[in-house]
Amino acid sequence: MSRKYTAAIVGCGGIGNSHMEAYNLVEAIEVIAVADPYEPARRQYMNDYNIPEGYATIEEMLDKAQPDIVSVCAWHLLHAPLTVAAARPSVKGIICEKPMTVSMGDANRMIEACDASGTKLVISHQRRFTAGWEKARELMQQQVIGQPLWMDCNVREGLLNWGTHAIDGARFVLGDPQVLWVMGAVERRTNRHERDTPIEDSCMGLVHMEDNLQLFIQSDLYKEPARSGGFLIRGTEGMLDVNEANVKLFNSTSNGWQQIPLRVEAAKIRAIGGETNAAQVRELIAWIEGGPEHRGSGYKARVTVEIMLALYESARQHHVIHLPLKEGEYPLQLMIDEGKLPVEQPERYDIRGFLKRDSIDEEAYTRLRNQGMRHHQAMRTLHGE
Ligand SMILES: NC(=O)c1ccc[n+]([C@@H]2O[C@H](COP(=O)([O-])OP(=O)(O)OC[C@H]3O[C@@H](n4cnc5c(N)ncnc54)[C@H](O)[C@@H]3O)[C@@H](O)[C@H]2O)c1
User: Fold this and answer.
1) Which residues span the domain enclosing 232?
2) Which residues line ligand 1 at a C-beta cut-off of 6 Å?
3) In terms of CB atoms within 10 Å, which end of the chain has fewer, N or C?
């Protein structure tokens, strides 16, 4: 059957499966090609999903397959070059994975390239489509807790990893308010990386928004109850406890904590994949066809990146960072290069690099897995656990 739009996946790893699952749920789309330099990975996708064309590079794939929509599913540092490469007039939409990127320079380049080619850019903060977050946003608009004052969340495995979802989700639930300044603190005493990107051991940040609303985020400081999708919001007239599948309200009429019914049963709500990612695709199609800006557009994700980078920049400069952030590079890398974050444990390790079991050989897998174990040991030693 000929579908209305064709799509291609760039990066045949873990998250690419969620994009495939979503495209398979959207009637209007047919996935016609994949691109991945690692031959076994693209071969596996072609076999598992019955995809006719596979290429080693994005350029060859774009030239030959000419897809309407491209999913960028490689690691963080490749998001900008792959998105810029895909921004061609023939490509109507791109869904690039989170974090959008790790520098404002790259975020701007991605947006400029897509604006120039007329390509709609979405960053996969797909949790904006979960029923819990949608209901929380609706309740906040109805001011069920009065004027919001304070929101906090606790995440782990790096700010760029879980933190991007949490900050983006907080902004979504609050109605994407304007961010005025950020103050942050960062610890990096081990040579920690996530998917090839240097990251902190732990950090925390205060994000000040319009109407004196503040978001507090902590990452990797204590284990429980770390939740990437969970927030507690305090307002002038009550509190809202939110995650992707659960919303509880406390105000003068709630008679204690009141469970708020969602449009989908909690057990059926998925933070990644399935209907969540499919809804993200459907909204992109509507945007391509002249509908409103996508709730997860590159323009919105750019602000989330700016907040995370401003947190690092605040730690680098030892003062509050007022937005817009002027630094165009990755401030954490700059801090490392400037000797501001000397490591006590210099051996490099990656907390996510080892997870893609079948994209590397046995020896590399064992080495990375062992480094992952050393990471847990190193963190326990540093934090006295
Ligand atoms: N939205 C979410 O909830 C979510 C969840 C998991 C991962 N992610 C993001 O998805 C991205 C990928 O993570 P993953 O866990 O799927 O990684 P992965 O290691 O499982 O897969 C990455 C794939 O990209 C391929 N690749 C490398 N260089 C490439 C290139 N130049 N062109 C095309 N393909 C290339 C690799 O060979 C590999 O197959 C990360 O940025 C991560 O943050 C997002």
Assistant:
1) 131-266+297-385
2) 10-15, 35-38, 41, 58, 73-76, 78, 97-98, 124, 126, 195, 272, 356, 359
3) N
